[in-house]
Structure of Cytochrome c oxidase assembly protein COX20, mitochondrial:
Amino acid sequence: MANDTSPTSPPGSEGTSSSSLPPLPDPSTVGQIPPRQKATFSDAINSISWDSLSNIHKTPCARQTFLTGIATGFAFGGVKLVLRAPLYSACNWAVGMFTATSWVVWEACEWRRGREQDGMIRAMQIIEYKKLEREKKLEERREQLRVRKEEDERLKREAEKRWWKPW
């Protein structure tokens, strides 16, 4: 066994002997990320409210999604018109490309955000792990100092003992 470290140990801890510290858990199992549940279409429709529609511009990834979708839809619809497609067909292409592009950009953005969130959770785990390591080393050092102090006191008491007795 050349490498005894677990795959969940933090980077740079290959040579440390911290067998009593727990291994870091998987990032998706800790933090404030609730477990993902299967949602139905009716659940999705019921979760939409007027307040969420009026504040859609505040949703993460929404601006990038809409701007990319609008630009792509406009470009494809324009190209179809230039290529002498009927207006109805060009509009269908524009709406379809807006929808498809928006969906792809939304999913890519959400994927990036999820990875970033997992990275932040992992960073928090590593910070906590290193804090535990520091506390363990500090405790070991205190114990060593206590033992050394007791040994010094014992040696001092032995040195103070007289090796001779007058009576």
The CA atoms of residues 70 and 138 lie 59 Å apart. Residues 59-158 form one domain.
